[in-house]
Amino acid sequence: MRQKTVWAKALVSLLMVVVMTAGVFCAYSRSHPPVALGQETGSATGKETPERIVVTSMATAYIMEKLDLQVVGVPDSQVDPLPDRYRGVTSVGAPMQPDQEVLSALQPDWVISPASLIGDLKPIYEKLNLTYGFINLNTVPGMYQSISDLGRLFNRQQEAAALVADYDRFMADYRQRHPAGSGKKVLILMGLPGSYVVATDQSYVGSLVKLAGGENVYPDASQPFLNVNVEDMLKKDPDLIFCTAHALPDEVMAMFHEEFQTNPNWKHFRAVKEGRVYDLNHNRFGMSAKFNYPEALSDLEGYLYA
C-alpha cells in the first residue's frame, strides 16, 4: 500500500509540473538565482569537470555514462539496470525520495535530477544547501537539448555533440520514411494501479507519438498530463488508443484490461470496436526520455503505419 501511495503522490506531482522551454536545463547554486545553463553559475562554469556529481534518476545516469562522467551517487531502481560503470557507487535511494543524510554526506558539487520532480526535490536540495540542476526529460528533443547543456557545464562538449549528431541522423532517416506522418489520431493513457491520466505532447510518451507522426487528440502545450473524463475522450474519436504505465506495469495493464471490459463507455469508441487498443512496453514508454527511443519509435511505426 505504501508503494502505491508513493507512486500516486508522484503522479499528482507530475500533473503540477511546469514544463521548461527556453532554458531546458535550469542550474541552481547556493548563492545564485535560477539561470539558463551557459550563463554564469557561480564557481561552476563548465571549464573544469566537477569531481562529485550525484544523479537521482536512472535516465539521468544513462546520460552521464554517455558523456563519460563519473558520479558519486546513483538512485535505486527496480526497473532499469544500473550502468556497469556505476556499480558499487553509493545509492542515494528512490528517485522521488532520495535519502537526505546520504546526499548530505556525499558533499556533491552538483546534484542532477529530472525536471518532472522539481516540485518534490527542489525543497530538499535547498534545505541541504546543495548546488543542483534539473534536466528536461519530458521529451526526446528536450533530452538532447539538456545533453548539450550538460556538455557545456561538465566540459563534455565533444561527447554531447556526437550524441546530438546521432539523434539528428536517426530522425532525418525516420522522417524521410514518413514525410507526411501517419494522419492517425491517438489517445494516450498513462496509468498506475487504480487510476490513469491522459498524456499530452509534453509527456515523454506523447513526444514519441508526435515524433513518430501520430496526432495526439490532446496535444496541450502547457502540461504533460490531463485529467479527462471518458465522455470527453469519446468526442475526440481517436483512431488508436495507447496504454502505458508510470510504474508497476503488470498491475496497471491488468487495470486497463478490466477498465475496457467493465466500463460500458469504452464500447462506443471506434478504436475499441476495431481492436485498435495497444499496450505499450513500459521500459520504452515510461516517464523519462532514454536512449532506447529508436526501439520505441519502431514499435509506434508498426501501429501508426500498419
Could you describe the 3D structure shown?
- This protein has two domains: 20-174, Rossmann fold (3-Layer(aba) Sandwich), CATH 3.40.50; 181-304, Nitrogenase molybdenum iron protein domain (Rossmann fold, 3-Layer(aba) Sandwich).
- The longest helix is centred in the middle third of the chain and has 21 residues, at 157-177.
- The chain has helices spanning 2-16, 58-66, 100-106, 118-127, 140-153, 157-177, 204-212, 230-236, 249-262, 270-273, 293-304; strands spanning 26-29, 32-36, 53-55, 73-74, 90-91, 93-94, 97-98, 110-114, 132-135, 185-192, 195-199, 215-216, 225-226, 240-245, 277-279.
- Helix 7 packs across helix 11 (293-304).
- A hairpin with a 2-residue loop joins strand 10 (185-192) and strand 11 (195-199).
- Mean pLDDT is 85; it is low at 1-24 and 28-47.
- The chain has eleven helices and 15 strands.
- The protein is globular and about 55 Å long.
- By secondary structure, the protein is of the alpha/beta class.
